[in-house]
Amino acid sequence: MKPEDTVDFHIRWSWYNISRMYNVKATEYGGTMAIGYALLNIDKEGTPSTKLGPKMGMEPRSMTRMIKSLEKNGLIVKKSDEKDKRMVRLFLTESGNELRKKSRDVVIKFNEKIFATIKDKELNTCFKVLKEINSLIDENHIFKTK
To answer: What values do phi and psi take at 84, rounded to 5?
Structure first.
């Protein structure tokens, strides 16, 4: 079987291209795709640090490094929760909010171009197939024997 005959080849190829496109654009603003994605997932009322990783699909170790980097670069601040002092919330700084807006604009522009170019029916089929693939993986049905 040739790589281009496999499902994962096409998913990986598309994701690589999307990732590269976002990273090229992000470097114009001094960021990365991962930084932009993190900023997009931090709410105005603050996001608990323990909730950011799951929102982004990242492991806790990687998330710890990401949070430290965001804080070091002045994009976020950490504050104790007013009600539960054990919880730490992440808030965007002014520069973090500016970079978030730029990231949001880039994501919107990409999606607008995709929606304008690819028919709704085709996109809906794509989304349905990807959801089914994720369900098969999440439910561990890929390698189960009958």
So the answer is: -125, 100
C-alpha 4/C-alpha 8 separation (Å) is 9
> pTM value?
0.84
Q: Which domains does the chain have, with CATH numbers?
A: 34-138 (1.10.10.10)
CA 10-12-15 angle, 5° bins? 105
Positive/negative CA dihedral, 123, 129, 59, 18: negative
CB atoms closer than 10 angstroms to residue 21:
13
Task: For the chain, 146 residues long, give each residue's pLDDT as a single digit of tens.
Answer: 898 899 999 999 999 999 999 999 999 998 899 999 999 999 988 999 888 888 888 888 888 888 999 999 999 999 988 888 888 999 999 999 999 999 999 999 999 999 999 999 999 999 999 999 999 988 887 877 66
